[in-house]
Design goal:
Layout: E1 2-3, H1 18-30, E2 36-39, H2 52-69, E3 75-78, H3 82-90, E4 95-98, H4 107-115, E5 118-122, H5 128-131, H6 143-160, E6 168-171, H7 180-188, H8 190-194, E7 201-202, H9 208-214, H10 223-235, E8 240-241, H11 246-262
Parallel strand pairs: 1-2, 2-3, 3-4, 4-5, 5-6, 7-8
This protein binds 6-hydroxymethylpterin-diphosphate.
Length: 267
């Protein structure tokens, strides 16, 4: 990820200017990233809301600079606003990552349909300011049943607004409206999310539940824990991994994939 927010929790928003974003992007690509994501609004609880204009101002110049240097790389923009998504797609992004799963601004789907863009639908609850907190982290006996039902609503919304099924990926939203035990459950039962029939992405990277399980408090030092979670997710069907530490995750996932392939268990 290339953050252009001043308050993202895991890398402290060190990548605000186009120059520093370019430097970060070069590193990510050198380490083996297949897709680069740019985000201009943090979901960290307590982060200030960002206006449409401000988000476009943050993302636009960085996207343009990155497109110029890496014309062959697909760019994904993390936004819950259709106007920002429209700007991003016109400026050369090809995927929109909507952490609200179309709950906040469903017109994102129409914009993606119009551009033939990819759309990541992530599970969360509540507003941008609430979704990464525990404000709506209330689940009954079957957390994954609730998550898949809510993801299905997002999928129906996307498809009814013209997004084709092969443009969609889904994400259980690790850490979003989920306590540590909820995130663990979502990962361990990820096969049920995969059963919806769409490619599944996970974002476990450096997250709080990794800190809780490993005892590592500094997010940047949670690489080993992140890898453990991603390998578990791979075995349960995840195929897209949103990570900060590309090289280490790529290597670990390549080995895990090779082991699964050796017994034909990687279909
Ligand atoms: N997690 C964060 C932001 N966007 N998008 C998807 N699809 N899945 C996720 O799990 C996800 C996401 C939050 O990540 P965080 O580490 O808080 O911030 P960042 O990665 O932007 O540095």
């Amino acid at each position: 990820m290339v953050n252009v927010t001043p308050d993202s929790f895991s890398d402290g928003g060190q990548f605000l200017s186009p120059d520093s974003a370019l430097e970060r992007a070069r590193q990510l690509i050198e380490e083996g990233a297949d897709i680069l994501e740019i985000g201009g609004e943090s979901t960290r609880p307590g982060a200030s809301p960002v206006t449409e204009d401000e988000e476009v101002r943050r993302v636009g110049p960085v996207l343009e600079a990155l497109r110029g240097e890496f014309p062959a790389t697909p760019f994904c923009v993390d936004t819950v606003k259709s106007a920002v998504a429209g700007h991003a797609l016109r400026a050369g992004a090809s995927i929109i990552n909507d952490v609200s799963g179309l709950r906040i601004d469903p017109a994102i789907a129409s914009v993606c349909a119009e551009h033939g863009a990819g759309l990541v639908l992530m599970h969360s609850r509540g507003s941008v300011a609430e979704m990464a907190s525990y404000r709506h982290a209330e689940y009954g006996q079957d957390l994954v049943g609730e998550v898949t039902t809510e993801l299905q609503d997002s999928i129906h919304r996307a498809e009814s607004l013209g997004v084709r099924s092969n443009q969609i990926a889904i994400d259980p939203g690790i850490g979003f409206s989920k306590r540590g035990e909820h995130s663990a459950r979502a990962l361990m039962e990820l096969d049920r999310v995969c059963a919806l029939g769409y490619p599944v992405m996970v974002g476990t990277s450096r997250k709080r539940f990794i800190g809780e399980l490993s005892g590592v408090s500094d997010p940047a030092s949670r690489v080993a824990g992140t890898i453990a979670a991603n390998v578990m997710a791979l075995t349960r069907g995840a195929r897209l991994f949103r990570v900060h530490d590309v090289k280490a995750n790529r290597e670990a996932l390549a080995v895990a994939w090779g082991l699964l392939a050796s017994v034909g268990a990687h279909a």
